[in-house]
Amino acid sequence: MKRPAIPDEPPPARPRPAGLFRLYFGGRYIWLMTALLMLLIVGPLVGRVEVLARSLYVGDFVLVLLLLASVRTFFDSRRHFVSCIGLAFLALIFGALNRVVAEDMRGAFAVAGHATEVVLLTYLILLIAGDIFTRNEVDTDTICGSITVYLLMAGVFSVAYTIILELDPRAFRIPDDIADLDGSLGPDRLMAYFSLVTITTLGYGDITPKGEMARSLANLEALVGQLYLTVLVARLVGRHVSNAAGFARGAPSARAGEQEIR
User: Fold this and answer.
1) What is the pLDDT of residues 67-101, one digit of tens each?
2) What percent of the chain shows pLDDT beyond 90?
3) How many CB atoms within 10 Å of residue 34?
4) Which of 104, 144, 186, 258 is deepest in the core (most CB within 10 A)?
């Protein structure tokens, strides 16, 4: 007598990470968003601290973390991956040369490195914005992408302010008690702070632009930041809420249809 075949048992389900960790494993933009938050928030606290050797700062490692996160974000696209790697490597080379060349040549290498950073950050903004604002469905990773674009815009302006400060130290009025030489890679810590204050329109007034170019960029950043939040991000959040409400309304009818079929 032939024994009945025993159906194969399904493989045990793999444990899924809970909460926010699930987004880190399944999302793309949250990695870059986290690195940007560290650069703009944690960087000013410890960015100037020297480690391991002279002229090697904690801020350098934070910037490398940002570059690795940007590369990881677009790892699936070979063209974008190579472009991010090339721009990041070029920015690091200019920053390293700025520390070893003669004193009269450091300004040129510093400006070249910062200009490369502006190109890289602008490139990331265009890639992410082109992705998230053309999606039909808005999820949590899309919202993280919109926040990433906002932080990248603050980063672009902070680097631009750093270039202006490098070319004209009198372009900004900086109180003597907070002025401090920043030798680490990436944007100047005070300029990163000024950029966040400007894009959020807080306007503390401790650092103020004096030069015409600095004032023009500050006006542009304040306008772009507010319009981005009130128009584009608000539109994404509204679509996300609408999609969630539509799914909730359609769920009972879908379950009823399944029962009828059975």
Assistant:
1) 778 777 777 778 888 888 898 889 888 888 887 88
2) 24
3) 16
4) 186
Contact 189, 59 (CB under 8 A): yes
- The sign one gets for the Cα dihedral 47, 48, 50, 54 is positive
- pLDDT (tens digit per residue) in 173-191: 999 888 877 777 778 888 9
Give the whole-angstrom CA distance, residue 30 versus residue 22.
Answer: 11
- Split at pLDDT 50, 70, 90, the class of 248 is low
For residue 173, the cross-strand partners are 208
DSSP bridge pairs for 50: 57
Q: Residue 83, Cα to own-chain centre: how many angstroms?
A: 17
Q: What angle do CA 228, 219, 112 make, to 5 degrees?
A: 90
Contact call for residues 131 and 145 (beta carbons, < 8 A): yes
- How many residues are listed for the chain in this entry? 262
Q: Is 173 helix (H, G, I), strand (E, B) or coil?
A: strand
CA distance 188 to 160: 10
* Other residues' Cβ atoms within 10 Å of the Cβ of residue 253: 9
Handedness of CA 39, 187, 145, 227 (dihedral sign): positive
For tokens 């103020």, name the residue.
208
Alpha carbon distance 207, 204 (integer Å)? 8
pLDDT of residue 256: 45
